[in-house]
Amino acid sequence: MGLSHADEVRAYQTYLEARDSYIPKLAVGSDIGYAHGFPLSLEGSAPTLFNVTTQSSVWSPALRDFIKAAKADWRASTSRADLEGIERVPQRRTDKHHRRKIRAVTAAASV
Questions:
Q1: How far apart are CA 37 and CA 35, in angstroms?
Q2: Mean pLDDT, rounded, for 86-99
Q3: N or C terminus: which one in the chain shows less Cβ crowding within 10 Å?
Q4: Helix, strand, coil: what percent of the chain each, to 5?
């Protein structure tokens, strides 16, 4: 059950990472620093006191297909984990029944 849970977590994290590409990212900062020589404004990148940068995927068919595949993998790993849990319940019951039977036989033999 530990491996199936690890697979489920890995598949879910892959899905979240792929879906995260559509969420805009925002970076805030400044480009102030010591400069020696010619000013950077000659190169088109002057030092700034404040800058904001955003990045996001707007439309990407390949990314959409990747998200669908990651979601399908996540759902498949979830159903595998559920099936493993279902398969183990009857096994536990039979083990418990088997132990009771052994106790009864040994108790009868010791009397």
A1: 7
A2: 58
A3: C
A4: 70, 10, 25
Q: What pLDDT sits at residue 65?
A: 92
Which tokens is 42 given?
């000659």
Report CA dihedral (93, 99, 100, 105) to the nearest 10 degrees.
150
Residue with tokens 């000659």: 42
Per-domain residue ranges for the chain?
Answer: 2-110
Whether residue 17 contacts residue 74, with contact meaning beta carbons closer than 8 Å, is answered with: no
**Predicted model pTM:** 0.51
Residue 80: strand, helix, or coil? helix
Average of per-residue pLDDT across 25-51: 70
Tokens representing 7 are: 């697979």
Average pLDDT over residues 26-55: 71
